[in-house]
Prior knowledge:
The structure holds two protein chains of two kinds.
Chain A: H1 16-42, E1 51-53, H2 56-70, E2 71-75, E3 78-81, E4 88-94, E5 97-99, E6 101-104, E7 110-116, E8 121-126, E9 130-134, E10 138-145, E11 150-156, E12 168-173
Parallel strand pairs in A: 3-6, 4-7, 6-12
Antiparallel strand pairs in A: 1-10, 2-3, 4-5, 7-10, 8-9, 8-11, 11-12
Chain B: E1 8-10, E2 17-19, H1 20-51, H2 60-92, H3 102-124, H4 142-171, H5 181-211, H6 220-254, H7 261-274, H8 291-299, H9 304-326, H10 335-338, H11 345-368, H12 382-409, E3 413-414, H13 418-444, H14 462-495, E4 497-498, H15 539-564, E5 568-569
Antiparallel strand pairs in B: 1-2, 3-4
Helix pairs in contact in B: 1-2, 1-3, 1-14, 2-3, 2-4, 2-5, 2-6, 3-4, 4-5, 5-6, 5-7, 6-9, 6-11, 6-12, 7-9, 9-11, 9-15, 11-12, 11-13, 11-15, 12-13, 12-14, 13-14
Amino acid sequence: xxxxxxxxxxxxxxxxxxxxxxxxxxxxxxxxxxxxxxxxxxxxxxxxxxxxxxxxxxxxxxxxxxxxxxxxxxxxxxxxxxxxxxxxxxxxxxxxxxxxxxxxxxxxxxxxxxxxxxxxxxxxxxxxxxxxxxxxxxxxxxxxxxxxxxxxxxxxxxxxxxxxxxxxxxxxxx
Amino acid sequence: xxxxxxxxxxxxxxxxxxxxxxxxxxxxxxxxxxxxxxxxxxxxxxxxxxxxxxxxxxxxxxxxxxxxxxxxxxxxxxxxxxxxxxxxxxxxxxxxxxxxxxxxxxxxxxxxxxxxxxxxxxxxxxxxxxxxxxxxxxxxxxxxxxxxxxxxxxxxxxxxxxxxxxxxxxxxxxxxxxxxxxxxxxxxxxxxxxxxxxxxxxxxxxxxxxxxxxxxxxxxxxxxxxxxxxxxxxxxxxxxxxxxxxxxxxxxxxxxxxxxxxxxxxxxxxxxxxxxxxxxxxxxxxxxxxxxxxxxxxxxxxxxxxxxxxxxxxxxxxxxxxxxxxxxxxxxxxxxxxxxxxxxxxxxxxxxxxxxxxxxxxxxxxxxxxxxxxxxxxxxxxxxxxxxxxxxxxxxxxxxxxxxxxxxxxxxxxxxxxxxxxxxxxxxxxxxxxxxxxxxxxxxxxxxxxxxxxxxxxxxxxxxxxxxxxxxxxxxxxxxxxxxxxxxxxxxxxxxxxxxxxxxxxxxxxxxxxxxxxxxxxxxxxxxxxxxxxxxxxxxxxxxxxxxxxxxxxxxxxxxxxxxxxxxxx
Lengths: 174, 570
């Protein structure tokens, strides 16, 4: 009875159903543990956390250079920028917008740099529902390969103030 | 009976001694807990009615303010106040001991109350709209941090008083042999609490001094790592305390008997050893930490803390099955379960808590906390969908069930409105389940957590709004459940009939409560427990846990399937 001290011989090996369950639970825990390294090497979706320390001003300068060199269009006043396949793309998060709009090609791979100019933000790509954290002072590099063409929306999903819900961006995949 | 207290009474229901000093502080902490629960619940209903996009009650400013208030009052004030009460109870009555120090108990209580009032005041004044996590560089008024620091120091002193009590009980030999399982579980919770609260101090003290302008800004990534050492580990305090309460309630309501105490205790030890750096689960898609770090700290090599929960998931229902079968409910697989005291709110709250925590909270938690799967879950409504099933449908509901015994046994008042008490756990549980499921599915549709409005994005359709409606209706039901709970508790304290000098009015548990005391009224070694090597019939529990494992595997691999469908990323 668990509200009284146990008998002196309480230290016993598990038996019967309990023993069987213990075995099943250990096997299941092992399977789950192995799934992650397995996916790391074999799977296509991994968060490696590749990142570099960066000053927000420097990051914005790099982004501006990227925009100036690769702008192809304008969408509602925001430049639409197409990075070269296999090249670097930059995305700035700030209260309360994403800058610029990116235009990518299906099946090509890009190194997408994301960082914040002010406080923490959340990069949430919809309707894919892929989510990554965005931090000031950290250049977070996501090596992405869009697998389907379409128009995608970036929603901010880390609270960043009263305009948080209106912090919406775009990625176009052709 | 041997006790080291001169200032005690003997409980007429259980035959346990109750140290009167401890009783006073159990009362103080429990009443404060319920007050903050009510506070957090009022915030909760406002939030549910705002996230239900069709209703959209609050404006943006008040939404985030009330969200800050809700998180802090529920996850910190309600839970930790009642856990301090639980610690005092398990170290005194279950060990026949007096409380270590009245003075420390007063200081602890005063600091916690002061801190709670300070933090709530500054939030309501609109000076701390930073949400519970207060991620830097978002900055709140210094009193916000100071309040939480004072509260944490108070809680730490309360935990120290618990360890002091264990020490004097051991020194004065007030109990024979090993401590009871419930106290052992509470001790595990207390150890985790010390580590968690220290993390809180490390994260918040420099943030406090920064908010005063005295020190430079702490690194935001560092802050996240350390803060979640408080934020996530606090939930492990809850898990530990909740499991201890499960064992307690199972014993009180069905005369449950653990199949093997060594296994149950080992599982508590696993919690203590393998839950550190649980903050990793919040940094799985963060910059600054690498894949190896993320994978290792997700599982600590092999999910030994999950193993601990899976062990309790078997031993808790198995101990009920053993207790019920010993009373003659031996027919078939589930006669013991059907004949369990479902009209006893102590039992129904405990068992519903067990089911919700395991089947919804546990399965979603392990899956969402898998390193790569977190990509399709981080900061969406799936996360609150998960933890409302663990900490609300699990922990809070278990503590509500406990309250149906604390008020008669410690406050010595028999409950009023017994019909309402009997249905309260069901109302609350169904509300939380509905809300959790609504949140989880809306999150799978990509809806972010902690967002006042989703229509601005213009991408969510009718299905999403349906799930948010589920969230809203579940919220209303759960709020009704809390309201009934609080009204009954307060009503009973004010108008309940005193049961001094007799046993508490039974909630409807034949031949069970009597089992708690030996014939001579002493509480000592439990002879019957020695028979456990003979083996027990736990077929029913075995069927339940196998169904659980199948559900777990289906959900887990379905999520890998969903992940394989999104863009490639590394």
